[in-house]
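User: Could you walk me through two proteins back to back? I'd like the raw sequence and the C-alpha coordinates for each, with a short line separating them so I can tell where one ends and the next begins.

Assistant: Of course. Protein one, sequence then structure:
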Amino acid sequence: MSYNSLTSFLCMCIILVTCISRTPIFATESVDTVIFPVRFKVHIINGFADNTNPLILHCHSRDDDLGQHTLWENQEFRFKFIISFIRMTLFYCSFNWRSKSLNNFCVFGNSVQVGTCKQTENCFWKVAEDGIYFSDNNRNWEKKACWL
Protein backbone atom coordinates (compact mmCIF):
# COMPACT_ATOMS: atom_id res chain seq x y z
CA MET A 1 0.00 0.00 0.00
CA SER A 2 1.44 3.37 -0.94
CA TYR A 3 1.78 6.24 1.57
CA ASN A 4 -1.10 8.20 -0.04
CA SER A 5 -3.37 5.15 0.00
CA LEU A 6 -2.54 4.48 3.65
CA THR A 7 -3.19 8.10 4.60
CA SER A 8 -6.54 8.07 2.79
CA PHE A 9 -7.48 4.79 4.44
CA LEU A 10 -6.64 6.12 7.93
CA CYS A 11 -8.60 9.33 7.31
CA MET A 12 -11.65 7.33 6.20
CA CYS A 13 -11.38 5.12 9.31
CA ILE A 14 -11.29 8.17 11.58
CA ILE A 15 -14.31 9.71 9.84
CA LEU A 16 -16.21 6.41 10.02
CA VAL A 17 -15.51 5.95 13.74
CA THR A 18 -16.55 9.55 14.43
CA CYS A 19 -19.83 9.10 12.56
CA ILE A 20 -20.63 5.80 14.24
CA SER A 21 -19.91 7.19 17.72
CA ARG A 22 -22.35 10.06 17.08
CA THR A 23 -25.21 7.87 15.81
CA PRO A 24 -28.01 7.00 18.28
CA ILE A 25 -28.04 3.35 19.23
CA PHE A 26 -31.85 3.07 19.22
CA ALA A 27 -34.27 5.03 17.10
CA THR A 28 -36.07 6.31 20.22
CA GLU A 29 -32.89 7.74 21.68
CA SER A 30 -32.24 11.40 20.98
CA VAL A 31 -28.89 12.47 19.63
CA ASP A 32 -28.44 14.65 22.74
CA THR A 33 -28.36 11.61 25.03
CA VAL A 34 -25.71 9.87 22.94
CA ILE A 35 -23.36 12.72 22.05
CA PHE A 36 -21.49 13.93 25.09
CA PRO A 37 -18.33 15.87 25.72
CA VAL A 38 -15.19 13.83 26.08
CA ARG A 39 -13.45 16.36 28.34
CA PHE A 40 -14.49 16.84 31.94
CA LYS A 41 -13.26 18.84 34.89
CA VAL A 42 -13.70 17.72 38.51
CA HIS A 43 -13.68 20.34 41.28
CA ILE A 44 -13.20 19.44 44.96
CA ILE A 45 -14.10 22.35 47.27
CA ASN A 46 -13.42 22.78 50.98
CA GLY A 47 -16.86 23.77 52.28
CA PHE A 48 -16.09 23.73 56.00
CA ALA A 49 -17.21 26.70 58.09
CA ASP A 50 -14.64 25.88 60.79
CA ASN A 51 -11.20 25.75 59.22
CA THR A 52 -8.84 25.43 62.14
CA ASN A 53 -7.87 22.16 60.48
CA PRO A 54 -7.55 21.91 56.69
CA LEU A 55 -9.11 19.28 54.45
CA ILE A 56 -6.52 16.75 53.29
CA LEU A 57 -7.35 14.86 50.11
CA HIS A 58 -5.62 12.41 47.83
CA CYS A 59 -7.05 11.60 44.37
CA HIS A 60 -6.15 8.94 41.82
CA SER A 61 -7.34 6.90 38.89
CA ARG A 62 -6.16 3.55 37.63
CA ASP A 63 -3.43 5.30 35.63
CA ASP A 64 -2.77 8.59 37.42
CA ASP A 65 -1.92 9.52 40.99
CA LEU A 66 -2.91 13.18 41.43
CA GLY A 67 -1.14 13.44 44.76
CA GLN A 68 -2.11 14.72 48.19
CA HIS A 69 -3.51 18.22 48.56
CA THR A 70 -4.26 20.46 51.54
CA LEU A 71 -7.28 22.74 51.16
CA TRP A 72 -8.16 25.58 53.52
CA GLU A 73 -11.53 27.35 53.67
CA ASN A 74 -13.13 27.76 50.21
CA GLN A 75 -10.01 26.52 48.43
CA GLU A 76 -10.47 24.20 45.48
CA PHE A 77 -8.52 21.38 43.87
CA ARG A 78 -9.47 20.65 40.28
CA PHE A 79 -8.31 18.37 37.54
CA LYS A 80 -9.36 17.77 33.96
CA PHE A 81 -9.16 14.75 31.73
CA ILE A 82 -10.49 13.09 28.60
CA ILE A 83 -12.72 10.09 29.22
CA SER A 84 -11.83 6.73 27.77
CA PHE A 85 -14.23 5.09 25.33
CA ILE A 86 -12.34 1.82 25.58
CA ARG A 87 -12.53 1.30 29.33
CA MET A 88 -14.28 2.94 32.27
CA THR A 89 -12.82 6.25 33.43
CA LEU A 90 -12.83 6.32 37.23
CA PHE A 91 -11.35 8.81 39.69
CA TYR A 92 -11.35 8.27 43.45
CA CYS A 93 -10.46 10.58 46.31
CA SER A 94 -9.79 9.96 49.98
CA PHE A 95 -10.74 12.77 52.38
CA ASN A 96 -9.46 13.48 55.89
CA TRP A 97 -10.58 16.26 58.23
CA ARG A 98 -9.93 16.23 61.95
CA SER A 99 -10.79 12.69 63.07
CA LYS A 100 -13.16 12.07 60.13
CA SER A 101 -12.22 10.21 56.97
CA LEU A 102 -13.73 8.80 53.81
CA ASN A 103 -11.53 6.61 51.64
CA ASN A 104 -11.70 5.86 47.91
CA PHE A 105 -14.84 7.88 47.26
CA CYS A 106 -15.69 7.86 43.52
CA VAL A 107 -15.71 11.47 42.25
CA PHE A 108 -16.00 10.52 38.59
CA GLY A 109 -17.27 7.40 36.82
CA ASN A 110 -18.44 7.19 33.18
CA SER A 111 -21.72 5.51 34.06
CA VAL A 112 -22.91 8.28 36.42
CA GLN A 113 -21.11 11.57 35.94
CA VAL A 114 -21.10 11.61 32.13
CA GLY A 115 -24.89 11.97 32.25
CA THR A 116 -25.11 14.35 35.19
CA CYS A 117 -22.17 16.59 34.25
CA LYS A 118 -22.78 16.57 30.49
CA GLN A 119 -24.31 20.06 30.23
CA THR A 120 -21.52 21.92 32.03
CA GLU A 121 -18.64 19.45 31.52
CA ASN A 122 -17.90 20.09 35.23
CA CYS A 123 -18.50 17.94 38.30
CA PHE A 124 -18.35 19.79 41.62
CA TRP A 125 -17.84 18.14 45.01
CA LYS A 126 -18.11 20.15 48.22
CA VAL A 127 -16.76 18.56 51.39
CA ALA A 128 -18.56 19.84 54.50
CA GLU A 129 -18.98 19.06 58.21
CA ASP A 130 -21.98 16.79 57.65
CA GLY A 131 -20.86 15.04 54.43
CA ILE A 132 -19.99 15.33 50.77
CA TYR A 133 -22.22 17.15 48.28
CA PHE A 134 -22.43 16.99 44.49
CA SER A 135 -23.40 19.62 41.90
CA ASP A 136 -23.02 20.01 38.15
CA ASN A 137 -23.27 23.83 38.33
CA ASN A 138 -21.69 24.83 41.69
CA ARG A 139 -25.10 26.12 42.89
CA ASN A 140 -27.56 23.27 43.44
CA TRP A 141 -26.05 20.77 45.88
CA GLU A 142 -27.18 17.23 46.65
CA LYS A 143 -25.76 15.25 49.59
CA LYS A 144 -24.08 12.06 48.33
CA ALA A 145 -22.14 10.70 51.31
CA CYS A 146 -21.71 10.96 55.06
CA TRP A 147 -18.45 10.81 56.97
CA LEU A 148 -17.47 7.44 58.40
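----
Protein two, same layout:
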Amino acid sequence: MERLEYGFPLSTLWHYALQATHMVMRTHYGHSPVQDPTCLQAHKDWLNRTWDASKPNYAASKSPIRHSLIARILYIITYDSKKRRTWNTSRQWEPTLDELKSLVTDIAENDAADQAKKRKDDWAAHDAFFIRDALDAS
Protein backbone atom coordinates (compact mmCIF):
# COMPACT_ATOMS: atom_id res chain seq x y z
CA MET A 1 0.00 0.00 0.00
CA GLU A 2 1.31 3.44 -0.93
CA ARG A 3 1.32 6.31 1.45
CA LEU A 4 0.56 9.96 0.76
CA GLU A 5 3.45 11.95 2.19
CA TYR A 6 1.97 15.38 1.59
CA GLY A 7 -1.17 16.88 0.21
CA PHE A 8 -1.18 19.26 -2.71
CA PRO A 9 -3.96 21.84 -2.46
CA LEU A 10 -5.84 22.46 -5.70
CA SER A 11 -8.74 24.76 -6.24
CA THR A 12 -11.80 23.19 -7.74
CA LEU A 13 -13.82 24.74 -10.55
CA TRP A 14 -16.27 26.19 -8.05
CA HIS A 15 -13.47 28.21 -6.43
CA TYR A 16 -12.50 29.66 -9.81
CA ALA A 17 -16.12 30.63 -10.47
CA LEU A 18 -16.36 32.24 -7.04
CA GLN A 19 -13.16 34.23 -7.58
CA ALA A 20 -14.30 35.30 -11.06
CA THR A 21 -17.61 36.49 -9.62
CA HIS A 22 -15.84 38.43 -6.87
CA MET A 23 -13.53 39.97 -9.48
CA VAL A 24 -16.50 41.22 -11.51
CA MET A 25 -18.13 42.60 -8.37
CA ARG A 26 -14.94 44.40 -7.27
CA THR A 27 -14.36 45.83 -10.74
CA HIS A 28 -17.87 46.89 -11.71
CA TYR A 29 -19.68 47.50 -8.42
CA GLY A 30 -19.18 51.26 -8.53
CA HIS A 31 -19.64 53.84 -5.81
CA SER A 32 -22.56 56.02 -6.84
CA PRO A 33 -25.57 54.76 -8.79
CA VAL A 34 -26.57 58.39 -9.34
CA GLN A 35 -23.35 59.25 -11.18
CA ASP A 36 -23.03 55.89 -12.94
CA PRO A 37 -26.30 54.03 -13.57
CA THR A 38 -24.36 51.29 -15.39
CA CYS A 39 -22.64 50.11 -12.19
CA LEU A 40 -23.70 46.91 -10.47
CA GLN A 41 -24.64 48.82 -7.34
CA ALA A 42 -27.44 50.50 -9.30
CA HIS A 43 -28.68 47.13 -10.56
CA LYS A 44 -28.48 45.69 -7.04
CA ASP A 45 -30.54 48.60 -5.73
CA TRP A 46 -33.12 48.32 -8.54
CA LEU A 47 -33.55 44.62 -7.76
CA ASN A 48 -33.95 45.40 -4.03
CA ARG A 49 -31.14 43.02 -3.09
CA THR A 50 -29.62 43.39 0.35
CA TRP A 51 -26.23 41.83 1.04
CA ASP A 52 -22.77 42.95 1.95
CA ALA A 53 -21.04 43.97 -1.26
CA SER A 54 -17.58 43.75 0.32
CA LYS A 55 -17.90 39.96 0.70
CA PRO A 56 -20.87 38.69 -1.33
CA ASN A 57 -21.74 35.04 -1.48
CA TYR A 58 -21.73 33.34 -4.87
CA ALA A 59 -25.47 33.15 -5.56
CA ALA A 60 -26.17 36.67 -4.31
CA SER A 61 -23.50 38.21 -6.54
CA LYS A 62 -24.05 36.00 -9.58
CA SER A 63 -27.72 36.98 -9.81
CA PRO A 64 -27.25 40.74 -10.47
CA ILE A 65 -24.31 40.00 -12.76
CA ARG A 66 -26.45 37.76 -14.95
CA HIS A 67 -29.44 40.10 -14.74
CA SER A 68 -27.28 43.06 -15.73
CA LEU A 69 -25.61 41.12 -18.55
CA ILE A 70 -28.94 40.06 -20.05
CA ALA A 71 -30.38 43.57 -19.69
CA ARG A 72 -27.37 45.17 -21.40
CA ILE A 73 -27.39 42.68 -24.27
CA LEU A 74 -31.15 43.15 -24.77
CA TYR A 75 -30.71 46.92 -24.77
CA ILE A 76 -27.94 46.73 -27.35
CA ILE A 77 -29.90 44.31 -29.53
CA THR A 78 -32.96 46.53 -29.36
CA TYR A 79 -31.11 49.72 -30.15
CA ASP A 80 -28.44 48.29 -32.42
CA SER A 81 -26.93 51.31 -34.16
CA LYS A 82 -26.37 49.40 -37.42
CA LYS A 83 -29.97 48.23 -37.87
CA ARG A 84 -31.86 50.93 -35.93
CA ARG A 85 -34.44 48.53 -34.58
CA THR A 86 -37.36 49.73 -32.54
CA TRP A 87 -38.84 47.77 -29.67
CA ASN A 88 -41.70 46.49 -31.86
CA THR A 89 -39.40 45.27 -34.62
CA SER A 90 -37.08 43.72 -32.04
CA ARG A 91 -39.95 41.69 -30.61
CA GLN A 92 -40.57 40.22 -34.07
CA TRP A 93 -36.88 39.59 -34.78
CA GLU A 94 -35.89 35.94 -34.41
CA PRO A 95 -32.11 35.83 -34.48
CA THR A 96 -30.08 32.72 -34.94
CA LEU A 97 -27.53 31.75 -32.34
CA ASP A 98 -24.73 32.78 -34.72
CA GLU A 99 -26.23 36.26 -35.12
CA LEU A 100 -26.39 36.73 -31.36
CA LYS A 101 -22.85 35.44 -30.89
CA SER A 102 -21.48 37.81 -33.54
CA LEU A 103 -23.35 40.78 -32.07
CA VAL A 104 -22.14 40.08 -28.53
CA THR A 105 -18.60 39.41 -29.80
CA ASP A 106 -18.60 42.80 -31.54
CA ILE A 107 -19.65 44.47 -28.30
CA ALA A 108 -17.32 42.56 -26.00
CA GLU A 109 -14.17 43.38 -27.92
CA ASN A 110 -11.93 46.08 -26.50
CA ASP A 111 -12.35 48.03 -29.72
CA ALA A 112 -16.00 48.76 -28.90
CA ALA A 113 -15.03 50.22 -25.53
CA ASP A 114 -12.24 52.28 -27.10
CA GLN A 115 -14.64 53.67 -29.69
CA ALA A 116 -17.08 54.63 -26.95
CA LYS A 117 -14.28 56.35 -25.02
CA LYS A 118 -13.34 58.35 -28.13
CA ARG A 119 -16.97 59.49 -28.36
CA LYS A 120 -16.68 60.43 -24.65
CA ASP A 121 -19.46 57.96 -23.83
CA ASP A 122 -18.24 56.47 -20.55
CA TRP A 123 -21.45 54.53 -19.93
CA ALA A 124 -21.21 52.67 -23.27
CA ALA A 125 -17.55 51.92 -22.59
CA HIS A 126 -18.44 50.61 -19.13
CA ASP A 127 -21.15 48.44 -20.73
CA ALA A 128 -18.65 46.96 -23.18
CA PHE A 129 -16.11 46.25 -20.44
CA PHE A 130 -18.77 44.72 -18.20
CA ILE A 131 -20.08 42.45 -20.97
CA ARG A 132 -16.56 41.28 -21.71
CA ASP A 133 -15.79 40.58 -18.04
CA ALA A 134 -19.15 38.94 -17.29
CA LEU A 135 -18.81 36.61 -20.29
CA ASP A 136 -15.29 35.71 -19.23
CA ALA A 137 -16.52 34.94 -15.71
CA SER A 138 -19.41 32.78 -16.93
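Residues 31 and 41 are 7 Å apart (CA to CA).

Let me know if you want the two compared in more detail.
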